[in-house]
Specification:
heterodimer; A: Alpha-Beta Plaits; Alpha-Beta Plaits; 4 helices; elongated; B: alpha/beta; Rossmann fold; 3 domains; 6-stranded parallel sheet; 20 helices; 36% helix; 17% strand
């Protein structure tokens, strides 16, 4: 099963490499990983999506917690949560397909953020599944480039991940 | 206010941590630090002949005392040579602080002379590592390094110090922090009472219990508590390779080591148990054999200070995160206050069964007609000559298993071996580290002609610092454990496991200023070994010819259950 794990990390040099190294060292899977500073400049927040059975996920959270630079770990998928990913996707867009891209982007509430006579670049925000669905509905034939941010997530309601 | 250079702060902080000896090897990046060492006499430096030995000496000091050992190595090759020793300590959860020199900050990343990314290289084999960014941080960083190394589940910590952090002319106020507080690091200091109560209930209900204890009891200083608990409950105790000495080896309730080369009765008891109380052990693959067949009828209570060790390979029914000592004490309090005891009749039946297993294969080996000594005989003699009271520092291979099986450890911290990583070359430097700190104790290095040659250069260090360890070299002229596997799994194709062109170890020892003794016949062994240990002030290298065809048994059948064992070359369970 897919899990979204959020980590508060000391904003120290090398901290990120400890997390990434842990995943490869212990043969854990990383599907996506994002990291950025938080409102507290001494902390970074890292979100990793991974796949594994309960035993593997338990090990991942325990091993993450063991890293000295890790302040807190939460598996967002254990509770109600919101996940978002940003994608920018560049299409060869000419002829009838040009209108098709525009229409589909509208349906998915995407925005066209760059235009040339032959291309459209669409920005889309949503769950990973929604981004996948967008790509699927337009087909891969005209895609020139895809860039995805990886998943960020936050718990619903009053639950927060902070120190 | 006292102003010190970074180099002086390194030495002063070590002193303030209570460090007496550091083990190391100088080099360019550390010259300022070595100059600071020269100008004081509170911290003594031991010059090894290879950085790996420095780490093993520091490691063995920690294994014998529970306190972090300190190694000091220069950048580049000094640091990389130390990696094996760091990994050795990491796998066995040994507290150690390794200070590595680094090229000057402005050169980092430029492929400077003797530059290596030690933070990156050491990352997977350390509990934590630090790169010093400001010279004035040195005392605090060293304080943190010791704190992390010695608390929770212990482990090695690397402190990487760029040369410009130690410049003699840059001086700063020296402040050694009284305490350490880290928001991201707070090891568990007490087990959960609810979980402990659950464990207590299972203990009271057990009819076929086994206590399985590991290195966590040794490093957690919980051996007295474990002994009291086992005695109170009349439960059998088995130790892992790392846990030997955690429970008295000559006691009736001790059923021996368990696992791949565990005793017949220990492995049988584990397999048939209805309750396993695991304390400071991590169910590693050399213990469990096939995890899908592991102890099919047992409920498992697992006490460990590291939550990640619990349910990693074998799911625990009652996990208890906490230090062994405190958790066992709490269990004892429950026993006392409840005045309950387990079913004595059931235990009696269980003990009868265990004793029957014991008589079936109670540490037997065969002495055949050949002139050659059995390696087991040598270890039994070592146990006899030293009264079971020596520090036994082992290398890795068959001799290690024989030592684990046949030396009866009645005290913790006496059995010093590389269990997790299996580092050949560990034994001699380990013995040196122990001897230096326990000059009056008998210290034996049990080794083979293969392992000893991996750090043989340290005979020179032994001479320089008068370290009269006794080297018990079980010479079978082959890499015995490799050869055993080749016998068992590769139709005796002994690929690269035969040692040709061995040196004359007697002359070799003598050339380093030591005494060499060659023993070929069992009849001569006792006298020779007694003489060797009587030579209190001299290192004696005992080159003992043993049967090259001997195998270590029992040996579990790969991927089988705990009870699936070879008992000899021809007998199987």
């Amino acid at each position: 099963m897919r899990h979204i794990i959020s980590v508060l990390l000391e904003n120290e040099p090398g901290a990120l490499s400890r997390v990434v190294g842990l995943f490869s060292q212990r043969n854990f899977n990383i599907e996506s990983l994002t990291v950025a500073p938080t409102d507290d400049e001494t902390l970074s927040r890292l979100t990793v999506t991974t796949v594994g059975d309960d035993r593997v996920i338990e090990q991942i959270t325990k091993q993450l917690n063991k890293l000295i630079d890790v302040v807190k770990v939460v598996d967002l998928t254990e509770g109600e949560h919101i996940e978002r990913e940003l994608m920018m996707i560049k299409f060869k867009a000419s002829g009838a397909f040009r209108a098709e891209v525009k229409r589909t982007a509208d349906i998915f509430r995407g925005q066209i953020i760059d235009i040339t006579p032959n291309t459209y670049t669409v920005q889309l925000v949503g769950s990973s599944a929604k981004l996948d669905a967008f790509i699927e509905s337009l087909g891969t034939a005209s895609i020139m480039e895809v860039v995805r941010s990886g998943v960020s997530g936050i718990a619903r309601g009053e639950k927060v991940l902070s120190i | 206010m006292e102003l010190l250079s970074g180099a002086e702060m390194v030495v002063r902080a070590l002193r303030d941590e209570g460090v007496k000896y550091i083990y190391g090897y100088p080099g360019g990046a550390l010259l300022h630090v070595y100059d600071a060492i020269f100008q004081q006499d509170e911290v003594e430096h031991i010059l090894v002949r290879h950085e790996q030995a420095a780490t093993h000496m520091a490691d063995a000091y920690a294994r014998a005392t529970g306190k972090a050992g300190v190694a000091l190595v220069t950048s580049g090759p000094g640091a990389t040579n130390a990696v094996t020793g760091i990994a050795t300590a990491y796998m066995d959860s040994i507290p150690m602080v390794v200070i590595t020199g680094q090229v000057m900050s402005h050169l980092i990343g430029e492929d400077a002379f003797q530059e290596t990314d030690m933070i990156g290289i050491s990352r997977p084999v350390v509990k934590h590592n630090f790169s010093v960014q400001r010279a004035e941080d040195i005392p605090a960083v060293i304080r943190k390094a010791f704190h992390i190394a010695q608390t929770g589940r212990p482990g090695p910590v690397v402190v990487d110090i760029p040369k410009d952090m130690t410049t003699p002319t840059d001086r700063f106020e020296y402040v050694f922090p009284k305490s350490v507080k880290m928001r991201s690091y707070s090891p568990v200091t007490k087990g959960h009472s609810g979980q402990i109560k659950k464990a207590f209930d299972l203990l009271m209900a057990a009819k076929r219990p086994v206590i399985y204890s590991g290195g966590g009891v040794i490093m957690g200083d919980a051996s007295d508590e474990l002994t009291t608990l086992a005695k109170t409950l009349n439960f059998p105790v088995t130790n892992t390779l790392m846990g030997l000495g955690g429970y008295p080896g000559t006691d009736r309730q001790f059923v021996g080591m368990l696992g791949m080369h565990g005793s017949y009765e220990a492995n049988m008891a584990m397999h048939h148990a209805d309750l396993i109380l695991a304390i400071g052990a991590r169910f590693d693959d050399r213990v469990t054999n096939g995890t899908d067949k592991f102890c099919p009828t047992a409920k498992i209570v697992h006490i460990d200070v590291d939550p990640a060790s619990i349910s990693k390979t074998i799911r625990a029914d009652v996990p208890i995160v906490g230090p062994a000592k405190g958790v066992i004490e709490e269990i004892m309090q429950l026993i006392k206050s409840s005045k309950k005891m387990p079913d004595a009749e059931a235990l009696d039946t269980w003990w009868k069964q265990i004793d029957e297993w014991r008589t079936r294969h109670g540490g037997r080996y065969r002495i055949d007609d050949s002139e050659l000594m059995k390696p087991q005989q040598v270890i039994e003699m070592l146990s006899k000559v030293t009264g079971g009271d020596a520090f036994v520092c082992s290398d890795v291979g068959q001799h290690q298993m024989f030592a684990a099986q046949y030396y009866k450890f009645n005290k913790p911290n006496r059995w010093i071996n590389s269990g997790g990583l299996g580092t050949m070359g560990f034994g001699l430097p380990a013995a040196m580290g122990v001897k230096l700190n326990f000059p009056d104790a008998d210290v034996a290095c049990v080794t083979g002609e293969g392992s000893i040659q991996m750090n043989i250069q340290e005979l020179s260090t032994c001479n320089q610092y008068d370290l009269p360890v006794k080297i018990i070299c079980l010479n079978n002229q082959s890499l015995g454990m490799v050869r055993q596997w080749q016998d068992m799994n590769y139709e005796s194709r002994h690929s690269q496991s035969y040692m040709k062109s061995l040196p004359d170890f007697i002359k070799l020892a003598e050339s380093y200023g030591h005494i060499g003794m060659k023993v070929d016949r069992y009849a001569d062994l006792e006298a020779a070994m007694t003489e060797a240990f009587a030579l209190k002030d001299r290192l004696v290298f005992m080159d003992i010819a043993v049967d090259p065809f001997e195998h270590v048994y029992p040996m579990q059948v790969p991927r089988g259950s705990m009870r699936d064992m070879w008992l000899s070359k021809t007998e199987r369970t």
